[in-house]
């Protein structure tokens, strides 16, 4: 994974559900039958395709233009129960099929998060798909309130809510105050919008996109949170999908504010595996010559940061990190077991170890960017949108003591991540969701991809989703501590099977297992 795909956080009360569109049985090509009155104008809208660059310094837009990608805005209702009311826009991009004689259709992309956009992704996917790429219109979109779509920004002073409760009660109380304040800030700035930020509404937007593209069915590729979004879409709009790939899959029954707790064991095991790797490179990183020594160094750094914040870097990229933030650095660095990813975390821990010893340090641009995410409001919009979706999907326990008791119980087994993965978040102080979580009641053909050591969305979630979708097939990458595989992990076994499915529409005859090694 090249982006940090934070999957977040289980039980919702229904405060008045918006009506959902159903599968089409009528004669129109794109508008589902039995849709609420007034939705037809969204499905039938004309899209004004044009260039993607919004300004001379829009590097991403210029790159898309050079790649032949076109961009457009899709108009959707803020509240699907009031289609004649306020509207918002969803930004989409399209790399059109060049093999028009063998064109398959449109494929919609989602990069997870929630909070990650995919407007930038069609050229990359086109390359990964090899001979199949030219047969698709590859369509990226930034979900509602993300990226180039109508924005949502609560004006936070942090860009993520993934912090540890720290080593003691005082640190936890600071976390309670922080997250209560973040929720209050969103309520103060965007109270009229927050009730409509949810996965179900994003799925409705997807179906409007399908209609506006003139497609009866749409193919879909989702990573991480995008697997949950894709699952929800298949349930809300059964029969509307062609080929579906869900990579880094989530058990839809577990999605909600406490989802991260499901991966605490995988995080500890991934850290231990990384520690073994780092021990073999002590000359480079100076963290210890055995796994135990490296983990002891990690624990020492966390304890030192609890006694007083560590100062890392030099102005203008100087940061102070305490025991709520150091575990976040660990979590962010464990998304993959490639040498490049492990080296990046090794360099970061080497910096933190030096800072703990009072030595001056310098930061790589990558590390500085990660710390800006955790300590400044530079990525406030991303954090705001991500949190709004998670809190808008399912309610969280509201009593801080529930979290504290879980944290305390988890410390012995999960000394570095128990206090992070089980920590309180803004959802504890959020207004309750308007709709119930989506239940899987319809079968859907899908190709599910998962690694056995996935440290973000545990493999057991993929197995559970596979069990819920009887017609699905599961590709398992055995022995890999990796989140998001296709294209990103360069595993030919996975890439070839996914591309074969996208080309033929035929799922493998049975489940498949790929080795950790590429090829």
UniProtKB/TrEMBL annotation:
GO molecular function terms attached to this record: peptidase activity
Which interval of the chain is the signal sequence? Answer: 1-23
UniProt keywords (A-Z) are: Hydrolase, Protease, Signal
Spell out the InterPro entries in the cross-references.
Answer: AB_hydrolase_fold, Pept_S33_TAP-like_C, Serine_prot/Carboxylest_S33
The source's superkingdom equals: Bacteria
Ranges for the Peptidase S33 tripeptidyl aminopeptidase-like C-terminal domain?
423-514
Question: What is any Pfam family matched here?
Answer: Abhydrolase_4
Return one Gene Ontology term, BP aspect.
proteolysis
Q: Record keywords: Flavoprotein included?
A: no
Keyword Methyltransferase annotated: no
Name listed for the protein in its UniProt record:
Putative exported protease
Organism this protein belongs to: Streptomyces formicae
């Amino acid at each position: 994974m090249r982006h940090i795909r934070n999957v977040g956080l289980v039980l919702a009360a229904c405060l008045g559900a918006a009506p959902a569109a159903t599968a089409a049985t009528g004669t129109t090509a794109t508008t589902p039958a039995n849709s609420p009155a007034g939705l037809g104008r969204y499905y039938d809208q004309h899209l004004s395709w044009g260039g993607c660059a919004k300004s001379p310094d829009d590097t991403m837009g210029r790159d898309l233009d050079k790649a032949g990608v076109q961009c457009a805005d899709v108009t959707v209702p803020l509240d699907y129960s009031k289609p004649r009311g306020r509207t918002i826009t969803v930004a989409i991009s399209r790399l059109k099929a060049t093999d028009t004689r063998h064109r398959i259709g449109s494929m919609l992309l989602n990069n997870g998060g929630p909070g990650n956009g995919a407007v930038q992704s069609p050229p990359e996917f086109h390359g990964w798909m090899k001979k199949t790429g030219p047969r698709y219109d590859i369509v990226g979109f930034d979900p509602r309130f993300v990226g180039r779509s109508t924005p949502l920004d609560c004006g936070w002073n942090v860009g993520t809510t993934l912090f540890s409760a720290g080593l003691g009660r005082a640190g936890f109380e600071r976390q309670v105050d922080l997250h209560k304040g973040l929720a209050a800030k969103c309520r103060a700035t965007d109270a009229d919008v927050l009730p409509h930020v949810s996965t179900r509404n994003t799925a409705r937007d997807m179906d409007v996109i399908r209609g506006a593209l003139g497609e009866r069915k749409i193919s879909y590729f989702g990573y991480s949170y995008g697997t949950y979004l894709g699952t929800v879409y298949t349930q809300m709009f059964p029969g509307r999908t062609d080929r579906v790939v869900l990579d880094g899959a989530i058990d839809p029954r577990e999605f909600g504010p406490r989802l991260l707790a499901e991966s605490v064991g995988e995080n500890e095991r991934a850290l231990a595996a990384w520690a073994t790797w780092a021990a073999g490179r002590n000359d480079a990183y100076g963290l210890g010559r055995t796994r135990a020594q490296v983990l002891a160094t990690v624990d020492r750094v966390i304890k030192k940061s609890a006694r007083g914040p560590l100062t890392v870097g030099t102005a203008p990229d100087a940061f102070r990190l305490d025991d709520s933030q150091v575990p976040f650095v660990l979590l962010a660095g464990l998304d993959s077991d490639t040498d490049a990813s492990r080296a990046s975390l090794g360099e970061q821990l080497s910096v933190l170890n030096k800072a703990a010893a009072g030595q001056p340090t310098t930061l790589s641009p990558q590390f500085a960017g990660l710390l800006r995410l955790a300590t400044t409001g530079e990525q406030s919009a991303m954090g705001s949108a991500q949190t709004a979706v998670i809190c808008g999907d399912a309610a969280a326990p509201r009593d801080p003591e529930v979290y504290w008791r879980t944290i305390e119980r988890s410390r012995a087994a999960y000394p570095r991540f128990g206090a992070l993965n089980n920590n309180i978040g803004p959802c504890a102080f959020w207004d309750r969701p308007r709709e119930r979580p989506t239940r899987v009641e319809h079968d859907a053909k899908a190709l599910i991809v998962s690694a056995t050591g996935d440290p973000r969305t545990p493999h057991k979630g993929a197995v559970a989703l596979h069990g819920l979708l009887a017609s699905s097939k599961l590709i398992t990458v055995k022995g890999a501590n990796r989140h998001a595989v296709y294209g990103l992990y360069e595993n030919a076994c996975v890439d070839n099977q996914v591309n074969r499915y996208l080309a033929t529409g035929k799922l493998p005859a049975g489940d498949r297992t790929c080795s950790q090694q590429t090829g």
